[in-house]
Amino acid sequence: MNEKPSLFGGLKQRFRKKRPAVSILAAGERLRLSGQSLVLKPDPNGFVFELGKQTIHLCPAHPESGNEDSTRSEWILFDPELYFSGISHTLRLRPGESLSVDHREENQRLVFRHGKDTFRRHLQIRHGGDFLEFRDPISELGTFVSLLEGGDSDRTYKSHRLRKLERLRELLGPRIEPLGSEEALHLLQEVNRRVANDPYRQRDSLDNAGSLLELPVNLTPVIIGDLHGQVNNLLQILIENGFLESLENGEGALVFLGDAVHGEEPGQFEDMESSVLIMDLIFKLKRHFPGQVFFLLGNHDSFSADVMKGGVAQSLLWEKRIVELRGAEYARQLGIFYRQSPLFARSKNFLACHAGPPRNKVSRETLIEARQLPELVHELTWNRLKSRSWPTGYSKSDVRRLRKSLGAEESMPFIVAHYPQAATGSVWLNAGEIPHHHIIYSARPREAGVFTRVSGEMVAQVYSVQDLQLTINEAMDQAI
Prior knowledge:
Layout (H helix, E strand, L loop, with lengths): L6 H9 L14 E4 L4 E3 L6 E5 L2 E7 L14 E4 L1 H4 L7 E3 L4 E3 L14 H5 L4 E4 L4 E4 L7 E5 L9 H16 L8 H16 L15 E3 L5 E5 L6 H9 L3 H6 L3 E5 L16 H16 L4 E3 L12 E2 L2 E2 H13 L1 H13 L3 E3 L4 E3 L10 H5 L5 H9 L13 H10 L8 E3 L10 E2 L8 E4 L6 E8 L2 E8 L3 H12 L1
Parallel strand pairs: 11-17, 12-13, 13-14, 18-19, 19-21
Antiparallel strand pairs: 1-10, 2-9, 3-4, 3-10, 4-5, 5-6, 7-8, 8-9, 12-22, 15-16, 17-18, 20-21, 22-23
Helix pairs in contact: 5-8, 5-10, 9-10
């Protein structure tokens, strides 16, 4: 006897999608999407789409992970002409997600150079886990798909990434691990000499490097929020986009918004080992690129007893562990680094600090002299966006006053870190319903967000994080 299904069960059966038949595209094949769906098995090298004058690539986002299960693999859609020539924008597709090429989607015009020709085609891509589904309902125009070939040529995403991993190992390695105490002290002393003479910082009245960093327009900023000891997040950012290349060719600048140390994830509050390593890596970057790597002070960047998390006095524990590992002189030099670091950054494209805007009107000269004003230092490193849980925080009027006092337009992006707006996620645009005020948090264990400039606009990008520390160290072990 057949049992009558429940109403819910009937609806579930009715709307359940049938798993499509999956095809395999052969090398050299060039198939036209003409209204019908094309379902293909993911290829480790990726696919090429021809949309009239526009050619775009779709590739596994993490080819360095080897034979990672395709059901967990993220894919990246990009214009190779832009991607391989500098910092560009990319579109990302996670398992279970769909993407439609549509001019109404924010920032897609930064990916597609031939917008009028591309957007007419309405290409749709669905990531089904172990299959990819492609469709172009505008059959008369013609969209073509083929396998990405080229082996180890300079123009493949996979070979490009692997070369960057090798270069990263050369810059930061040979293994990604903490330095010995003597080497670490020499590195920090060298970094302190460089920070004391940072470019783009006017001297203050005491003849020290002022607290205001003013980047020239010819440097493309890559703004990184709190890292909180997440070493893989930093490594991931460095191999994404054209960031590493921009440091190498002198066209880009890394701007850390502070709080690189002290784990924020449950169970990590007392772990200082990752904090030691991440500061070693940042100092190595500063040594290699002294005029392009800058660290703005955050509230965790201190030995203050005020820095607490889950009842753990993290900064006091940080100082104690530093002394145990590297001695009192290293701790003293780290204190010098903190006192020398800038507090505020600006360019023609953005304003930024760790925490929030001052409550009073400030000038360029005031920000240069900020170290002489303890209350201003506290606001720039501790302030939070006004909310129910933080009713004394800053508001829209404070952000408006900051822009006005610095002669910035109302549309100037003001970017801060410090205060995530949710338990998940990395980027909050127009945070607190304040136009062009953005919060970035780069310490999520599985994703890292940044802000950078593409085609004259400051845009957010979020990258899924792999265990690159393990990948780099295993490659080194195999080479020995």
